[in-house]
Fold SWIM-type domain-containing protein.
Amino acid sequence: MASEKILTVCQSGGEFVRNTDGSMSYSGGEAHAIDIDSEMSLEDLKSEIASMFNFNDEPFSIKYFLPRNKRTPITISNDKDLKRMIAYHANSDTTDIYVTKISESRIIRSDVADSGTLINADITPLANFNEAKRIKVCSDWDNLITGVGQVFSTSKDFRDALHKYAIAHSFMYKLVKNDQSRVTAECTVEDCPWRIHASRSSAKQKFMIKKINPTHTCGKELTKESHKLASQRWVASVIKDKLREIPNYKPKDIANDLEREYGLSLNYSQAWRGKSIAKKELYNPFEEACNQLSWFCERIIETNPGSVATLHKSDDLRFRFFVAFHASLYGFEHGCRPLLFLDTFSLKANRHLKFLAATAVDGENDIYPVAFSVVDIENNETWHWFLEQLKSSFTLSRAITFISNDQNGMEEELSKVFEDSFHCYSEQYLIENFQKAMESSWSQEVKDKMIDHLKSSIYAYTADEFNDCIENIRSESKELAEWVLGTKPETWSDAFFKGLRYGQYSSVAVEKYNDWLSVRSEPSVLQIVDTLRCSLMEMMYSRRVSCNTWTEALVPSANQKVQEDMIRAHSFALVRPTGTVFEVSDESTNVVNTETKECTCRRWQVSGLPCIHALAVMEHTNGCIDEYCSKYFSSECYRIAYSLSINPIPDVGMPVCSDPFHIPGACSLRARRLAGRPKEKPEEPRIAIKRPLRCSKCQAIGHNKRTCETETQSV
């Protein structure tokens, strides 16, 4: 607005009304228009308003709303507040201020009867000017706690309501019990009977107030400890809207405003921390992250030709970042089993981001990261996008077995993108759900026994073995056995699963990623991705060096297993009925077909390594064992998997910013330190270099002049 004056509509005699969307409006009364400029003082404004509404000597307060915030009225109590109001509305044609007589300001207190129902109390005039202003700001928090039977969505919602209720009613409280299922609070003043208890309803759907003693004998006056009610998160939620309008909102002003409007006494550091959290919530850190990742995508493709790096940005500043290095893709397609674990996890130091990872297994059964994605939300859409990027990265077409937990929407999207693939649940996911289904009254010994039966059903090679495991569970609990059968055994038991898992049932990929990315401060997205790249580069190099010393045709772990099984196979009886089909007898009779690499025990087909019955046949026929093992267990395939390197990106620490007005680091994700004392690396011990002992007489080493025997020998 070019003019220095602002046309102001002054309203008085009405009341504030809370709308359904949480905003407030002023209803009733009369209105007058006046001009306000930056040179006007608060006393001049009050004088003009007093004569306008004929207030005479009666005290009154002046309030206004921020341009885009109709939820919290702001009080004008000094000249600085008046100048702020003029600055906030500098681009507006008009503004509204609301005038209320202090003598008319009243608070309706409510008491809760023993039954928990709400009853109206007397209307008492306020005697204190500052208290009147505070109460008017908090008036919408008076009835957040109504009594027994009031329902909240979660325990957090209840705690938030209780916090505001305590501020509005001027008392301190402490939490006696505080968890997701129950919350109990009582007044901090000794012998004050006020107490409230809430817990989950019987249906475990809602959080409900079960008991309340509404009586206060403490006078409900905020003490010097009132700053404890002003947590950092609460301060941030209160000042967020104002900070959006005034980026340079000073901590000192924040403390003064909160004390005037809410009656809470804050020190400078509390106000500063609350402002830091509010800034973090207001300024979206992903905008800068996307700017950096666009540059990083180009650098990955330049330094690692054949790699895939994709960044998808939406209009609402959400992003998805996908990376698959050429060395990992080539190694997976030519040297690893067609088996991928799909995992999702969050960093311990950064809960804002979600990681989607596709991890294979090499010949030594170690994890082999193939691709990963950084997203800000996990749902069907992000999983579909990740799987599409993963499929487009592959150059070979082959059926892949995917193993996962029950991630959000992943299983449904997997069948759409990889139509010819197989999907099964991980062992860890099944055990976790199995433990939830077990009866809590069972002893730990019984629970461990049931888990062993479940594992046996996962590893079962035939339907008979699977049924035996189910009967063992049924002998303890029929309901638990039916639960197991209802989880679709064809998606997790070797007896029915159509794909190939090669003996892999769960992955430690999440733990490995967290070890690689174990940082104490919240890193930026670029730092996270580059740290992961460096870890992958080091892993590829170290494993490539180690496998160059191998001399056997099979990798060490597979070779050791075959040699151990070969010892057990010596005692088996062998019959050769026709061609390549053999009968092997031990406690039972199994048929081995060396041409199709099958055995009726199904261990050969499931694991990819010859079973003990097949090894007995090979020993009898002097066959080469290596030829009957899956190629993915050969040292040659292992070397192929790690034959290529992930190249470094030299200038990753200094990305070029295309926007000359963009200041890197202005919206960094580093906003908090993890709990606990930071771990310090021990200093390397100083190496003490001992000076050799030299004789000053004969100059020989090893003795001094007192023990020198040169003179004695010469005499």
In short: The first strand starts at residue 5 and ends at 12. The mean pLDDT is 80. The chain has 22 helices and 25 strands. Residues 525-547 form the longest helix (23 residues).
